[in-house]
Amino acid sequence: MKVPIRWLKDYVDFDLSLGALVNRLALAGLEVSGINHWGLPAPEGLRLGAEDPYPVWDKDKIIIGLVTKVDKHPDADRLKLPTVEYGSGRSITMVTGAPNLSVGDTGQKVILALSGSVLFDGHATPKVLKELKPGKIRGITSDGMVCSGFELGISEDHDGIIILEDDAPIGMPLADYFGDSIIEIDILPNKARCLSMIGVAREVAAMTGGKLKPFEHKPHTFGPAITGKVNVVIQDTSACHRYTASLIENIKVAPSPAFLKRRLHQAGMRPINNIVDITNYVMLEQGQPLHAFDYDVLYSRAKGKTPEIVIRFATKGEKIKTLDGLDRELSTETLVITDTLGPIAIAGLMGGAETEVTESTSRVLLESANFDFLAIRKAMKSMALPSEAATRFSKGIHPDQVIGGANRALQLMQEFAHGLPAEGRIDCYPSPKPLQVIDFSLAEAKRILGIAIPLEECTKLLTSLEFKVEKVSNEMLRVTAPTHRLDIQVGVADLLEDIARLYGYDKFPETSLSEQLPPVLIDPELDFERKIKDTLVHLGLQETIAYSLTSPEAESAFLESAKPAYVTLLNPISSERTVMRQSLMASIVSLTQANLKHTECVKFFEVGKVYQKVSGQTLPLEPYKLAIAICGPRNKPFWVEDSSGKNNLNFYDLKGIVEGLTSGVHLEKVSFKPGNHPALHPGKCAALMIHDKVAGMFGVLHPKLASTLGLDNHEIIAAEFDMQTLASGLPVRYLSKPVSRFPAALRDIAVVVDQAITGQTVTAEIQAAGGNVLKVARLFDIYQGDRVPAGTKSLAFALSYQADDRTLNDKEVDKLHKKIEDRLKHVLKAQIRGKEV
Q1: pLDDT digits over 410-442, tens only?
Q2: Which of 46, 229, 325, 611 is least surrounded by CB atoms within 10 angstroms?
Q3: 261 and 386 part of one domain
Q4: Measuring CA to CA, how many Å separate 340 from each of 310, 343, 529?
Q5: CATH code of the domain covering residue 489
Q6: Rounded to two decimals, what is the model's pTM?
Q7: DSSP characters for 251-291?
Q8: Is residue 217 part of a domain?
Q9: CA dihedral of residues 406, 412, 417, 422 (deg, nearest 10)
């Protein structure tokens, strides 16, 4: 919300510097995100972010002047020679090409810049500040300039000069006439009432003790009654709470007065004509959006009968051509304003092109309505039609604001468009909104705030915000919320928020705890999650956080079910974020895909929820999952190393990470077996088992899926595990194992086994035979070829024997080694290489 300080002072008296005002607003919950200046120097020490350069209007050189005559340039048809008086009998003649100044003109009030003024160069892109110097244009000396909005830095318009109001004082410095500072406030959802000048003025008055000025307006004369000239029907009262129609006749559509155009520019809006500008001005002033229809067009569409305005939802196939010239197809969830021939406006968003106000319009039907904020928000997002009006409707407006907005617009149209409002208005208000009345207890206030604020102080603070306060007892107040406070819904807590911020959070005393802090209770699930994350970080991985929203198409290749039941969003932000995710692997692969565009190596993990819809239940299951993805070179390539790709991360790197994770968090009964997952390569996929239960799958991304994702040149190895199943492997307690003081004896063993026997099976038999003395059994080589029988393979293991109480001699080691060989031959029908093969 852009708030010009001069405009703000039309509604409230206050005497604060700009810096002090910014600080007060911040304390009241209205954060100022930026400040723009119209010709005024920035206050010392007040900076909010980067500021673009702008012209500061020199009070001696940029002043208001009066055009006394305009002569023709002797050597150029498109140039003119205006003579401008600027006070104390001083005048100057210069050269201009302004199209809105003609030969023979006189009496216009303009902005005169004398030599030495610093302005934007009207012929340079991007904007450049330039000092104005005397010069000759087609043989005529020009020692000044009549200024456009572009040169002054207040608009992008440099096709014509600014024509001021007739009462602009000649010779006054422009900085004194309308130099201004415009503060930009970030409005939070619970401060939607401040999306108007009057809303901000109320806050400033409450903060500073300043007095609000009267701002109720209405036309001073009326024409014939509106009865019989228009009918209004609300078909869905849940979507349209109130609709009023006012008629104003004999209007003259023309450019708006200079002050009104200036204020619209300051608020970031483009002036169009006096009627449209007045509706926008009132919206900015009071927060009530309005819309003006050409009444004669409505009358023509009704075939000479009384026009009937109907507020309803669109029917299937209906279309409307909107003010931006686009033909829009309407959904059945879009609220529209219609007549007998169909839609004439999209409620709260944009009017129709056919009924817009044009230069030939002489009668206007003024809409001032209140629509359901959810209906407008949904239509705004689905149609991608954001606007100032839609923003206000989507945040909620009280229905009682409708009349004030309409009256103000009629008064301005009477003043600046010479219109005559019809007596009365059509007002459809099926279910008037009751006032919010809250019983307020001092004891409850102290319990919540932790400080006792006197009853009189509470009354004063609430009254300053226009609450009506009735004293029920010495400990109780009855408070009635003003109609513009739609945010007062919860009750006492809403009132306490206002009291606390106006009283001042800095006045709250420090209070020591009356008792000792309770013991910290450790959440086992959070503690396990933290250990998982810490271990993976120590293993060299980076944590990621992906969107919980996705689309069924993005996850289809990662799920077992062809058509899973999703938790869907009623109002998705985009077609790519329509459902809640069911696969964490899909999320992390998507992140990996994006990051591989900018980096060679990716090592990611994420712990997060997936959302599984359960038939017959309102809420989904939300189990936590762990996903891992790695891809790229194992370490940074060096010039002496092989760069053929043999250094890239592979399946066994991820298996090592998984083994490091399970040992790092001390999981028990961990094993692996061949797995199957729709997103993983069928020959390079394994299942992690905890207590013989599948905890998840890991492996190389399926080649077809990789090709679909455009990852043909990358081998992504990914995993997804269920956190609850992983946690089931945690022991109740685990004991640290002492390091033996005695040396280890190292032996190797190579066995030939059937092709179907896995290395894990052989390792298990070796460990069973070796007992406690065998500390390590590590597979270090696999051989398949003509040196072993067909259908078999050779597996070589490095074994480490070590006793905890003595040094093993060769006979003891030989005996244990022979025991292992015998077990392998007996159980697995293995052959010992070097002895039998």
Answers
A1: 999 999 999 999 999 999 999 999 989 999 899
A2: 325
A3: yes
A4: 8, 9, 63
A5: 3.30.56.10
A6: 0.71
A7: ----PPPHHHHHHHHHTT-----HHHHHHHHHHHHHS--EE
A8: no
A9: 40
